[in-house]
Write a structure and sequence with these properties.
- By secondary structure, the chain is an all-alpha fold.
- The protein has one domain.
- Helix 1 packs antiparallel against helix 6.
- The longest helix is centred in the last third of the chain and has 48 residues.
- It starts with a helix and ends with a helix.
């Protein structure tokens, strides 16, 4: 019985470490998704000259849960002429982005469809550079801190198990 309890403690601490490291995984995935979205937007605007509503409707399902939520909200905004774009509604439930990050991402969505195609592509290029840097930084943070927190959770569980033995 004691052995089962010790295994349960180690598993619980490992799960806790994995859950906490989820912050870094979600940030990495979100920034990768937004960078990929911008790349596909540039491609669609430059070569296929599709309308923004069609692009967003087609591309919205190809991303992670959190970014898909943002895209779906933006798609509903495009389809509804009376609805206004609200930052707090767009990022509802996205806890891993800071207020400053949300305040930078929100104007990106506000600027979509506001320019002619050449100016829109130039604007997208600027956002693409910024989000690529964010994607690389979040990837480094995930590799550094995400795996560290997970390993610390395992080690903490083993330490508790050793103390209780």
């Amino acid at each position: 019985m004691k052995f089962v309890l010790l295994i349960l403690i180690v598993a619980s601490c490992s799960f806790l470490g994995y859950s906490i490291s989820g912050y870094y995984r979600k940030r990495e995935k979100f920034y990768f998704d937004i960078h990929s979205f911008i790349c596909s937007l540039q491609l669609e605007i430059n070569f296929f000259e599709n309308k923004l509503k069609k692009i967003v409707a087609e591309k919205g399902q190809n991303f992670g849960k959190e970014f898909s939520q943002v895209i779906n909200y933006f798609e509903q905004f495009l389809l509804s002429s009376s609805k206004s774009l609200q930052e707090k509604d767009m990022f509802a439930g996205i806890w891993f982005l800071s207020t400053d990050e949300k305040q930078f991402i929100f104007p990106f969505f506000l600027s979509l469809g506001k320019f002619n195609s050449s100016n829109q592509v130039a604007s997208l290029e600027n956002f693409k550079k910024h989000f690529y840097d964010c994607s690389q930084n979040s990837k480094k943070e995930n590799e550094k801190f995400g795996s560290l927190i997970f390993k610390l959770g395992i080690l903490f569980g083993i330490l508790i198990a050793l103390i209780l033995m």
